[in-house]
């Protein structure tokens, strides 16, 4: 039976190892499906990669930091090498962060890579999400992956917040104090939640070790799980692609994983890591030694959270100070309302795909991306959402805006209070107009060709601009998109005179659908017939 | 202006001959449809594909980048060993910075970046750049597969007796619903109950107001109009073990206002000759408010800009705080020192449900 | 020219033109903006108070009244002391240029001799804080760590952790403290200029003020160290976030564009 022993040819070493692994793991099957898998090439498809790689970098550097960081809040007197703090009382967490920064060689670099990496990680997730949103990549079959990505963003924000709080410096402590105040505002259970979280009264000596396990174990664990699921789904669904010649809903055009993407994506990891390392080498981030250790009776102006929490800071700064006292209880609406709007702002963008699919009623798969102009209502909604987000960021940094643009902080706050309601409406209308204008321009380009900028004088003296017909590739790209018809409810009374009940939800859906796809809300794309009529007539003019 | 130049610019990439040669990815479109998919454009060669010298150049560039990376790693190790951790250097235009951090960051960055740049340059110039199309397959299963799964499930469910033996089902749900409770119960000892802890501070009748700069008790004559002083209750030392917890409630802000300028009668009554003592802890979410404008008597919170008028019972005049800063009644003891005449008569700091 | 006109319809042309226009506007502005170099003159020595009185009558009386009693345009100067004059005039805040939420610091108009004369005159109107001597404010040998503690308790709430300044209500602000002279810091604490409360010696003794000055000198002067690299204004997470987005994410996207871009094709011959 043992034919292996008598094999004429000894397979190369690498192949033998692969055989060994295949016999136990079945790797050939996996490789067959994936080794030459095609990925489309576009820079915006790499935003998610930036997020992925900075996440890996943050995990690597975070593990290093745990080797030196002491998540403890017992008070010590500092005797390390940073002179302006020698002899100052501080928590051990703060002291060990100073040691990482000043006494561990390279510790400062790793700390700064970790923090810059975290900022870039969340920023990259954010723009990646915006790319997916504005191109409609969240449509069937990718809604679940959209949710996974959204959860990663939210978890990333909280992981960032807990990490930012660990050094127990004066700035982060102020942030934790805010968090305590926010929890206290929760009706009925708020006081209890706060006492349980902090192990008693604020600040206590428990929150750093508790935040530490949340920051290094619980949240990153969840994130790794979600991330793996996110990536598996990307592989499984295959990547979306922009419209263009040869690209259909049934194929994916690009270059194979081995070797091109192996090299490009692998190389891109090193590019991202290298760039973050250089940034950490030249730009200071969270210089905790300048902030001092946390004391609940000290504070500095310009107390802000990291940027990803900035919009929540804006909510809380813009809110008027409403408070209700009744029957021996206090409802601090000035804190509690922003605390409730905070998840709603995030949820607004998270649930959008489901609203859109309900409006369109479309059950088919979409693998060709939308050009944002071809979905004016979606694009306008996204821009309006971004404008709210930006207003809140401005509100969250109102003091910095005030000092650097010589404005009144009260005026900025009032701008934010009004802008929160007005600006999204305006940006929605303007964006939608712009999208329709661009649709009209596309239509003109298809029918009349491209303006060349060449002015021609005709024999009788008239000046005309020469229009050049578009290439077939271009014509296809500009006209390939699907345009929905507005959803019709249909007659309430059928031909036999029987009334049917029209559900309220159906009426709402029809209303939305008109808003999305009614005559005034999208420009119908040119038909082949229109094109033939114009081009066969007098050519281009 | 340049009629001869422009046409070259605009139409080079879609000459009719090129379009005709589209070889792959062709799509069956109705003949004559002007918008039909023309299929993938033909592959165009890069310089490196047709010119071996250019390819060699690319190869050398890639190798150079990888070599640079090796050198940078060596430099990283050298910097780690050679540069003292506390060495400060001046680097234009950054300023006085840690030499080690700068050297390590830049060398590590170069070492990593060059690997990446080399790999990407390799992929871009030397690996095949022929675009190909892969077919997609529908995500949803075929009806046959679905039917088989449903049948399997039904069979499994029936074999388990899950639907038939209701007693088993209901008790199992009961058990599963109850068992997480033990986990919830275990969280009880995360902290003590609030009781009335948030209602009291260290201030008592007769406690002296200790200046936080000098750690000496304050006398009325120390506090001049327009000045700002912070005080803690007598007996609370920085090295005492609950200093943080107590100062978080007891921190005091002391200013002196000309009695004529005090608008609120209670504020004046609770002051000592215009010396007013307010809680330093913001009633919004607990930041130490203390941006005192001595001409307007307004105090601003640096965190969320709640503004209080200290001459008028510290009432809120702007921002998200819901109520005034609590005032501490003060007087002077027989030795001439400022003392508290009791605890705050309301809880300090952020509002909470039981505050009332 | 041919080349230029062929490219003017390039998608990036508008951007290039815009950048060019911005650069030109900025350059012109810089070239023509008024240079505010106050010309100071030497003045002959004379009796300080007498000279000060003359200077006062010319430069200050219109707002503060002929005898320093104050008018609707400026507060009374009786009892503000020489330290207040030395601070206000020495940092260029006085004479004020225009009404506004706050009088900003600017290049000073008077020489130190003239300032001393003005201060002597104002001090003669009523007793007040006296201009400090060098040994009072000289930071050499002071306790920097204690200064840091005091700074965070008394100053940081308005002036930021390391004295980068911050906002107050209605357009007022706490100025940044970069390279402010030790004497002026001392005088500001002593006298409480504008909205700033005072920190008199009775509540903040001389040594405490010196500690604070020493701390500020360590963390916020030309020679201050920023071990981590670019300080980014020392403003905390707002400027860090901005840098992270614009520069951090910006270079990532630039790298991504390079990675994904098509390699230059060989020219058709």
TrEMBL record, chain A:
<feature type="transmembrane region" description="Helical">
    <location>
        <begin position="50"/>
        <end position="69"/>
    </location>
</feature>
<feature type="transmembrane region" description="Helical">
    <location>
        <begin position="211"/>
        <end position="236"/>
    </location>
</feature>
<feature type="transmembrane region" description="Helical">
    <location>
        <begin position="146"/>
        <end position="166"/>
    </location>
</feature>
<dbReference type="InterPro" id="IPR005797">
    <property type="entry name" value="Cyt_b/b6_N"/>
</dbReference>
<protein>
    <recommendedName>
        <fullName>Cytochrome bc1 complex cytochrome b subunit</fullName>
        <ecNumber>7.1.1.8</ecNumber>
    </recommendedName>
</protein>
<feature type="transmembrane region" description="Helical">
    <location>
        <begin position="375"/>
        <end position="394"/>
    </location>
</feature>
<keyword id="KW-0472">Membrane</keyword>
<dbReference type="InterPro" id="IPR027387">
    <property type="entry name" value="Cytb/b6-like_sf"/>
</dbReference>
<feature type="domain" description="Cytochrome b/b6 N-terminal region profile">
    <location>
        <begin position="17"/>
        <end position="243"/>
    </location>
</feature>
<feature type="transmembrane region" description="Helical">
    <location>
        <begin position="257"/>
        <end position="285"/>
    </location>
</feature>
<dbReference type="Pfam" id="PF13631">
    <property type="entry name" value="Cytochrom_B_N_2"/>
</dbReference>
<keyword id="KW-1133">Transmembrane helix</keyword>
<dbReference type="InterPro" id="IPR016174">
    <property type="entry name" value="Di-haem_cyt_TM"/>
</dbReference>
<keyword id="KW-0812">Transmembrane</keyword>
<feature type="transmembrane region" description="Helical">
    <location>
        <begin position="331"/>
        <end position="355"/>
    </location>
</feature>
Automatic annotation (TrEMBL), chain B:
<keyword id="KW-0001">2Fe-2S</keyword>
<comment type="function">
    <text>Iron-sulfur subunit of the cytochrome bc1 complex, an essential component of the respiratory electron transport chain required for ATP synthesis. The bc1 complex catalyzes the oxidation of menaquinol and the reduction of cytochrome c in the respiratory chain. The bc1 complex operates through a Q-cycle mechanism that couples electron transfer to generation of the proton gradient that drives ATP synthesis.</text>
</comment>
<keyword id="KW-0812">Transmembrane</keyword>
<feature type="transmembrane region" description="Helical">
    <location>
        <begin position="103"/>
        <end position="123"/>
    </location>
</feature>
<keyword id="KW-0472">Membrane</keyword>
<keyword id="KW-0249">Electron transport</keyword>
<feature type="compositionally biased region" description="Basic and acidic residues">
    <location>
        <begin position="11"/>
        <end position="22"/>
    </location>
</feature>
<keyword id="KW-0408">Iron</keyword>
<keyword id="KW-0560">Oxidoreductase</keyword>
<feature type="compositionally biased region" description="Low complexity">
    <location>
        <begin position="25"/>
        <end position="38"/>
    </location>
</feature>
<feature type="transmembrane region" description="Helical">
    <location>
        <begin position="62"/>
        <end position="83"/>
    </location>
</feature>
<keyword id="KW-0411">Iron-sulfur</keyword>
<feature type="transmembrane region" description="Helical">
    <location>
        <begin position="167"/>
        <end position="187"/>
    </location>
</feature>
<protein>
    <recommendedName>
        <fullName>Cytochrome bc1 complex Rieske iron-sulfur subunit</fullName>
    </recommendedName>
</protein>
<dbReference type="Pfam" id="PF19297">
    <property type="entry name" value="QcrA_N"/>
</dbReference>
TrEMBL record, chain C:
<keyword id="KW-1133">Transmembrane helix</keyword>
<keyword id="KW-0813">Transport</keyword>
<dbReference type="Pfam" id="PF00034">
    <property type="entry name" value="Cytochrom_C"/>
</dbReference>
<dbReference type="InterPro" id="IPR050597">
    <property type="entry name" value="Cytochrome_c_Oxidase_Subunit"/>
</dbReference>
<keyword id="KW-0408">Iron</keyword>
<feature type="signal peptide">
    <location>
        <begin position="1"/>
        <end position="30"/>
    </location>
</feature>
<keyword id="KW-0479">Metal-binding</keyword>
<keyword id="KW-0249">Electron transport</keyword>
<keyword id="KW-0677">Repeat</keyword>
<keyword id="KW-0472">Membrane</keyword>
<comment type="subunit">
    <text>The cytochrome bc1 complex is composed of a cytochrome b (QcrB), the Rieske iron-sulfur protein (QcrA) and a diheme cytochrome c (QcrC) subunit.</text>
</comment>
<feature type="domain" description="Cytochrome c">
    <location>
        <begin position="142"/>
        <end position="220"/>
    </location>
</feature>
<keyword id="KW-0812">Transmembrane</keyword>
<keyword id="KW-0732">Signal</keyword>
<keyword id="KW-1278">Translocase</keyword>
């Amino acid at each position: 039976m043992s034919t292996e022993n008598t094999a004429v040819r000894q397979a190369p070493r690498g192949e033998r190892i692969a055989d060994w692994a295949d016999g136990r793991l079945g790797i050939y099957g996996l490789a067959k499906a994936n080794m030459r898998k095609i990925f489309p090439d576009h820079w915006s498809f790499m935003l998610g990669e930036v997020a992925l790689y900075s996440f890996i970098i943050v995990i690597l550097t975070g593990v290093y930091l745990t080797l030196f960081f002491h998540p403890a809040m017992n008070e010590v007197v500092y005797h390390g090498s940073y002179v302006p703090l020698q002899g100052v009382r501080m928590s051990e967490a703060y002291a060990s962060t100073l040691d990482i920064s000043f006494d561990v060689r390279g510790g400062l670099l790793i700390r700064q890579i970790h923090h810059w990496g975290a900022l870039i990680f969340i920023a990259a997730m954010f723009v990646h999400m915006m790319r997916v949103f504005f191109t409609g990549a969240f449509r069937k079959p990718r809604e679940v992956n959209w949710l996974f990505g959204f959860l990663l963003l939210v978890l990333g924000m909280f992981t960032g917040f807990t990490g930012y709080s660990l050094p127990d410096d004066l700035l982060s402590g102020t942030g934790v104090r805010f968090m305590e105040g926010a929890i206290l505002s929760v009706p009925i259970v708020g006081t209890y939640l706060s006492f349980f979280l902090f192990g008693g009264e604020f600040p206590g000596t428990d929150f750093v070790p508790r935040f530490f396990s949340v920051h290094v174990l619980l949240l990153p664990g969840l994130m790794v799980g979600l991330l793996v699921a996110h990536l598996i789904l990307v592989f499984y669904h295959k990547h979306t692609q922009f419209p263009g010649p040869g690209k259909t809903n049934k194929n994916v055009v690009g270059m194979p994983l081995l070797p091109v993407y192996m090299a490009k994506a692998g190389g891109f990891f090193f590019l991202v890591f290298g760039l973050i390392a250089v940034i950490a080498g030249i730009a200071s981030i969270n210089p905790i030694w300048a902030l001092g250790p946390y004391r609940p009776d000290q504070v500095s102006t310009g107390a802000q959270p990291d940027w990803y929490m900035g919009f929540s800071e804006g909510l809380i700064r813009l809110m008027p100070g409403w408070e209700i006292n009744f029957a021996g209880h206090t409802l601090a609406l000035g804190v509690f309302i922003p605390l409730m709007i905070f998840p709603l702002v995030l949820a607004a963008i998270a649930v959008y795909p489901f609203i859109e699919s309900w409006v369109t009623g479309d059950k088919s798969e979409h693998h060709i991306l939308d050009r944002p102009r071809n979905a004016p209502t979606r694009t306008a909604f996204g821009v309006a959402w971004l404008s709210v987000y930006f207003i809140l960021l401005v509100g969250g940094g109102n003091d910095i805006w005030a000092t650097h643009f010589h404005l009144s902080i009260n005026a900025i706050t009032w701008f934010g209070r009004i802008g929160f309601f007005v600006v999204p409406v305006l940006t929605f209308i303007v964006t939608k107009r712009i999208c329709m204008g661009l649709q009209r321009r596309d239509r003109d380009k298809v029918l009349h060709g491209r303006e060349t900028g060449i002015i021609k004088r005709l024999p009788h003296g008239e000046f005309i601009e020469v229009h050049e017909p578009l290439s077939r590739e271009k014509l296809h790209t500009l006209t390939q998109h699907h345009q929905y018809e507005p959803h019709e409810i249909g007659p309430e009374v059928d031909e036999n005179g029987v009334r049917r009940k029209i559900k309220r939800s159906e009426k709402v859906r029809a209303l939305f659908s008109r808003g999305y796809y009614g005559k005034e809300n999208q420009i119908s794309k040119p038909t082949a017939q229109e094109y033939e009529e114009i081009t066969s007539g007098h050519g281009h003019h | 202006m340049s009629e001869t130049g422009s046409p070259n610019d605009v139409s080079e990439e879609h000459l009719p001959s090129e379009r005709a040669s589209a070889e792959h990815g062709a799509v069956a479109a109705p003949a004559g449809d002007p918008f039909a998919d023309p299929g993938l454009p033909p592959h165009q060669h890069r310089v490196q594909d047709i010119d071996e010298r250019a390819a060699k150049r690319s190869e050398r560039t890639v190798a150079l980048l990888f070599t640079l990376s090796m050198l940078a790693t060596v430099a990283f190790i050298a910097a780690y060993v050679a540069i003292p951790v506390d060495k400060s250097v001046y680097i234009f235009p950054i300023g006085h910075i840690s030499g080690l951090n700068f050297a390590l960051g830049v060398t590590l960055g170069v070492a990593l970046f060059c690997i990446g740049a080399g790999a990407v340059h390799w992929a871009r110039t030397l690996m095949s750049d022929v675009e190909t199309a892969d077919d997609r397959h529908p995500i949803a299963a075929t009806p046959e597969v679905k039917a088989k799964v449903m049948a399997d499930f039904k069979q499994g469910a029936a074999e388990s007796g899950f639907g038939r033996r209701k007693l088993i089902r209901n008790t199992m749900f009961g058990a599963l619903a109850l068992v997480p409770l033990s986990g919830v119960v275990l969280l009880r000892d995360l902290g003590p109950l609030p009781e009335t802890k948030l209602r009291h501070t260290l201030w008592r009748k007769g406690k002296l107001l200790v200046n936080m700069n000098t750690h000496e008790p304050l006398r009325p004559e120390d506090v001049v109009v327009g000045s700002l002083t912070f005080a803690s209750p007598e007996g609370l030392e920085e090295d005492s073990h609950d200093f943080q917890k107590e100062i978080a409630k007891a921190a005091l802000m002391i200013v002196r206002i000309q009695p004529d300028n005090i608008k609120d009668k209670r504020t004046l009554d609770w002051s000592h000759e215009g010396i007013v003592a307010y809680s330093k802890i913001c009633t919004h979410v607990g930041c130490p408010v203390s941006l005192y404008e001595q001409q307007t008597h307004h105090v601003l919170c640096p965190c969320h800009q709640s503004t209080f008028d200290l001459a008028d019972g510290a009432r809120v005049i702007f921002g998200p705080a819901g109520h005034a800063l609590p005032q501490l009644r003060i007087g002077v003891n027989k030795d001439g020192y400022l003392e508290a005449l009791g605890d705050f008569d309301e809880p300090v700091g952020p509002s909470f449900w039981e505050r009332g | 020219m041919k080349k230029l006109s062929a490219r003017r319809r390039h998608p990036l042309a508008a951007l290039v033109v815009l950048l060019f226009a911005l650069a030109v506007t900025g350059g012109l502005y810089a070239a023509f903006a008024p240079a505010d170099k106050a010309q100071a003159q030497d003045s002959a020595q004379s009796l300080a108070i007498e000279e000060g009185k003359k200077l006062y009558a010319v430069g200050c009386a219109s707002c503060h009244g002929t005898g320093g009693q104050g008018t609707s345009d400026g507060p009374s100067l009786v009892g503000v002391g020489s330290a207040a004059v030395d601070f206000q005039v020495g940092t260029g805040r006085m004479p004020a240029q225009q009404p506004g939420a706050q009088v900003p610091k600017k290049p000073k108009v008077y020489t130190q001799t003239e300032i001393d004369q003005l201060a002597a005159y104002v001090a003669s109107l009523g007793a007040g804080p006296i201009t400090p001597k060098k040994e009072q404010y000289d930071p050499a040998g002071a306790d920097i760590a204690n200064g840091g503690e005091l700074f965070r308790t008394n100053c940081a709430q308005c002036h930021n952790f390391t004295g980068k300044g911050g906002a107050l209500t209605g357009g007022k602000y706490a100025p940044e403290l970069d390279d402010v002279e030790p004497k002026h810091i001392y005088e500001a604490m002593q006298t409480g200029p504008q909205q700033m409360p005072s920190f008199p010696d009775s509540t903040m003794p001389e040594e405490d003020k010196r500690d604070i000055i020493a701390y500020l000198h360590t963390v916020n002067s030309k020679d201050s160290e920023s071990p981590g690299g670019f300080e980014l204004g020392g403003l905390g997470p707002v400027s860090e976030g901005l840098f992270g987005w614009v520069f951090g994410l910006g270079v990532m996207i630039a790298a991504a564009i390079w990675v994904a871009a098509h390699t230059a094709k060989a020219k058709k011959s």
